[in-house]
Amino acid sequence: MRSAVARLIRSSSAETSRLSSSPVLLKTGNVFFSNATPSDPKNIEEPFKVEEAETVKVTPPSPDKLLVLGGSGFVGSHICKEALDSGFVVSSLNRSGKPSISESWADKVIWNQGNLLEPASFKDAMDDVSAVISCVGGFGSNSFMYKINGTANINAIRAAAEKGVKRFVYVSAADFGLVNYLLKGYYEGKRAAEAELLSKFTYGGVILRPGFIHGTRQVGSVKIPLGLVGAPMQMVLQNAQPLARLPLVGPLLTPPVSVASVAKVAVRAATDPVFPPGIVDVHGIMRYSEQN
């Protein structure tokens, strides 16, 4: 029994001696040292260092570039300002190029000259564009109205699709019953452009259908208030949605909407990837404009 205990003590002492003589790495800061006693002082190894990871600077993505067709007009100018205020790069295509607008925001827009009826004249304006917003439209003879409201926008939609633009927002117009017949070319052109948009931009095409748009319009250096009638009408008619479903009365009760609301929703529809595609009527425009 005593011999067994003696052997156990000798074994434990030997193990302790072996462990105490084993080298151990000691860390001080980012430098590691060994506690091993070198047999030759001349062969002392230099401590090895652990290099810290290099900080990688990631360049933030550049802001989306929006192309506003008809950016010098009443609705288009407000859309340009809304997009600039939201931090986007804004370019615009007009037949005359840069307009004579004295407001400071106009200097921040990249103005392009081109004619939507001549696709070759505006092809380069679509380069590096993430979304297009079209406010192009006009009145005149039926053939002229169809050409401006329909053909011009169809050309723009096709060009944007060919360039790989992600989203396209078209500011169209609400139905007004009898008015649709009286302005046949206007509405037929609008609806033809809408059909083309839904065909080419199934998941990224948004159609806004406002009624009367009120607000302040800049004509040269003069601001013309268009809200003196429109704003009160909007307050009265925005709650008349049930009556708006009536075939004869409904179109007459379509509430006006502010140009600021149209601009806000147009920019959101062009830049928010989860904004649902399809048609947004005047009530939808007012509802979306109230959201943050």
TrEMBL record:
Gene3D superfamilies: NAD(P)-binding Rossmann-like Domain (3.40.50.720). It comes from the Eukaryota. Pfam families: NAD_binding_10 (PF13460). Residues 70-215 form the NAD(P)-binding domain. PANTHER family: MIOREX COMPLEX COMPONENT 2, NADH-UBIQUINONE OXIDOREDUCTASE 39 KDA SUBUNIT-RELATED. This is NAD(P)-binding domain-containing protein. It comes from Urochloa decumbens.
